[in-house]
Structure formats: C-alpha cells, structure tokens
C-alpha cells in the first residue's frame, strides 16, 4: 500500500525537463539534497502537445539513482496504453491529463490497479468542475498555470484560485 499525500501538504517536485541529461543522475542527487520530495518527469508525445520528451526508459534509469518517488506527468494522448510501462519502469505516481484521457475514470482505476498514486492534470482553460466526480478517487491534482508542452510558457495566474478541493 502506498501512503496517500497529506491533505494540505506542499511538496517540492523538481522536473527533469530542464536538467542537463548528460548529468541527470548528479542533478537528481542535487535536487534530493536540496529538499525535493519527489522527482517530476514530464512526458510529451508530440500529439497531445507539440513536443516530444521522455519514455519509460528514463524512469527505469532514474529508479536506481534516487529513493525519491518518481512522479510521471503524462502529457500524452491516450495515456492508458503507457501506464503499465511507466509503472513497471518504477514510477510511483502517474498523472494523466483530463483532456487527454478518453475515459478518465478508467485511466484512474487502471493506475490504482497498478498500485500507483493516481493524479489528474487540467490545462489552464479547463474548468475545475471537470474533476468533481473523480476527485474522491485521486491522490493529487495538478492544476496547470501554463499550457502544457513547453519548458517556458506564458502563465495564467488568474486561474490559480479556481480550485478548492472539497471533502478531502
């Protein structure tokens, strides 16, 4: 059983997207020493978002490098077809986009069946109400303040206060 995240805990999850891949192990160790609670792996498929990044092999390579949980953010179309591969590679948390999952409830249940934390991300223009029905099944929600797919993007700060979890 994987312990749930705290209700109001703020967690530091540096992304490897901006890392120097030639020094990835060293930079993950620096993040860990700097107080990171987990390592965030941004996965992009060139379909859901225009860029292409990492696959399960990066997670597999990271797993022996750190004891920190590996949080995989799937900015991909049809995430269901990759959940098992990322879980087997060593991901602790799998985050699918509400906008990219065909049947979000099925995606979340599949993540749970793999014994992983289940998260859902929403894009800046997506109303938080889209998560109302599935919220009790989630371990975390990632509210994007930038459109997914780029390292640097224009932030939508007015969107930040739109999400207030209820009953959790």
Beta-strand percent range: 15-25%
Mean of the pLDDT scores?
87
What's the SSE pattern? HEHEHEHEE
Number of helices: 4
Task: Give me the CATH architecture, please.
Answer: Alpha-Beta Barrel
Measured on Cα atoms, how large is the radius of gyration?
A: 15 Å
For the biggest β-sheet, the strand order reads: 1-2-3-4-5
Shape: globular
| Structural class designation | alpha/beta
Q: Look at the structure and give the CATH class.
A: Alpha Beta
Count of spatially separate domains: 1
How many E-type strands? 5
CATH fold-level topology: TIM Barrel
Extract low-pLDDT stretches. Answer: 163-168
Topology:
Elements: H1 24-33, E1 39-44, H2 56-62, E2 70-75, H3 80-89, E3 93-97, H4 104-113, E4 117-122, E5 140-143
Parallel strand pairs: 1-2, 2-3, 3-4, 4-5
Helix pairs in contact: 2-3, 3-4
What does this molecule look like?
The chain is of the alpha/beta class and 168 residues long. It has a single domain (24-162), classed as TIM Barrel. 22% of the residues lie in helices and 16% in strands. It contains 4 helices and 5 strands. The protein has helices at 24-33, 56-62, 80-89, 104-113, and strands spanning 39-44, 70-75, 93-97, 117-122, 140-143. A 5-stranded parallel sheet has the order 1-2-3-4-5. The chain is globular, with a radius of gyration of 15 Å. The two termini are 19 Å apart. The relative contact order is 0.14. Residues 163-168 have low confidence and may be disordered.
Keywords summarizing the entry:
22% helix; 168 residues; 4 helices; disordered C terminus; alpha/beta; single chain; five-stranded parallel beta sheet
């Amino acid at each position: 059983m994987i312990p749930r995240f705290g209700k109001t805990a703020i967690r530091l999850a540096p992304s490897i997207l901006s890392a120097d891949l030639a020094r990835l192990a060293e930079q993950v160790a620096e993040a860990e020493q700097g107080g990171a609670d987990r390592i965030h792996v941004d996965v992009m498929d060139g379909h859901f978002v225009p860029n292409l990044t990492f696959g399960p092999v990066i997670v597999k390579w990271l797993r022996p490098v750190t004891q920190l949980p590996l949080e995989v953010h799937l900015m991909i179309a049809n995430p269901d077809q990759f959940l098992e591969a990322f879980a087997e590679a060593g991901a602790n948390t799998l985050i699918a986009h509400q906008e990219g999952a065909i049947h979000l409830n099925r995606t979340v249940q599949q993540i749970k069946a793999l014994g992983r934390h289940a998260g859902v991300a929403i894009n800046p223009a997506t109303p938080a109400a889209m998560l109302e029905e599935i919220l009790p099944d989630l371990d975390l929600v990632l509210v994007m303040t930038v459109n997914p797919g780029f390292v640097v993007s224009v932030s939508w700060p007015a969107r930040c206060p739109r999400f207030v979890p209820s009953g959790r």
